[in-house]
Design brief:
This protein is of the alpha/beta class. The chain contains 10 helices and 7 strands. Strands 5-4-3-2-1-7-6 form a 7-stranded parallel β-sheet. Helix 1 (13-25) packs parallel to helix 10 and helix 8 packs parallel to helix 10. The longest helix is centred in the middle third of the chain and has 19 residues, at 93-111.
């Protein structure tokens, strides 16, 4: 079975509409919701209408306003202000306790949404911060507490991904560096606890540029896969308020429409 998981549900109206269209008319099976984002309510209303869509947590420490503002990870406006490099070094017990409370608040916001009664299917995170080895045990603890079965680990085989894509753009787009870092973290994390199993993963090397030919090939594979996608209607997000320019550039890129076309080209397996 191929899991096609759309990240960033709740971030923008373009992402919300594309994910729901990709589920209704294409191959999206799961979506990861950002409980602290501006379009969360719209996203949850859409999820309520789609009981077959697996909804999981896109835990967040790097974008938008925190649900529980804390000077340990927020600026004076209550917005997350720590970058990935800083998070790698933050191991203070007070910081880790604050992260657990924030992430639990994000989970509880989803589970307490009126009319939402189904279990959360998985945990992953924005910019994959849950994979940082001193943060991963928090994700495991919350998964146990709330009965969440699957936590994303990056079990991507680079040779397999290259054979599928036959492109070298991962050299220029930083994909190989990201892969090496997240794969190393995943190997460390899996020794602590593996809630991902034998499922293979696709799209760290080719993040954000998953084309229709790739998803069609993945559907024919004999082993289970998860493909991570970030579809959107960029034109709907041109006037949206973003909390940083890098995220805006990513969300309004034409690649978001390429990934939408990709998920629309396949059916759910």
């Amino acid at each position: 079975m191929l899991i096609v998981n759309a990240d960033d549900l709740g971030m923008t109206p373009g992402a919300n509409r594309a994910i729901f269209d990709g589920h209704d008319k294409g191959g999206i099976t799961h979506a990861s919701i950002m409980a602290n984002c501006d379009y969360f309510d719209e996203a949850m209303q859409g999820a309520l209408k789609r009981p077959e869509l697996g909804v999981g947590m896109h835990l967040n420490l790097t974008y938008g306003k925190a649900l529980l503002p804390n000077a340990l990870y927020c600026d004076e406006n209550g917005c997350f202000n720590l970058g990935y490099k800083t998070l790698l070094t933050q191991k203070d017990p007070d910081f880790l306790a604050a992260v657990e409370k924030e992430w639990e608040a994000q989970i509880q916001r989803v589970l307490s949404f009126s009319g939402f009664t189904r279990p959360l299917t998985h945990i992953d995170s924005h910019r994959h911060v849950h994979l940082i080895p001193h943060l991963y045990p928090i994700a495991v603890k919350l998964a146990e507490r709330y009965g969440i079965d699957r936590i994303r680990l990056i079990k991507e085989n680079p040779l397999q991904s290259f054979r599928l894509s036959k492109r070298f753009n991962f050299i220029l787009n930083g994909g190989i560096i990201k892969y090496l870092l997240l794969r190393t973290f995943s190997m460390i994390d899996s020794r602590y606890e593996d809630r991902y199993g034998e499922r293979a993963f696709y799209s760290i090397l080719y993040t954000g540029v998953v084309g229709k030919e790739i998803l069609q090939k993945l559907q024919t594979m004999s082993i289970p896969f998860e493909a991570m996608v970030h579809p959107s209607y960029p034109e709907l997000d041109a006037e949206v308020h973003f909390y940083d320019d890098g995220e805006k550039d990513y969300r309004i890129s034409s690649d978001r429409r390429v990934e939408l076309d990709a998920v629309l080209s396949i059916g759910r397996s």
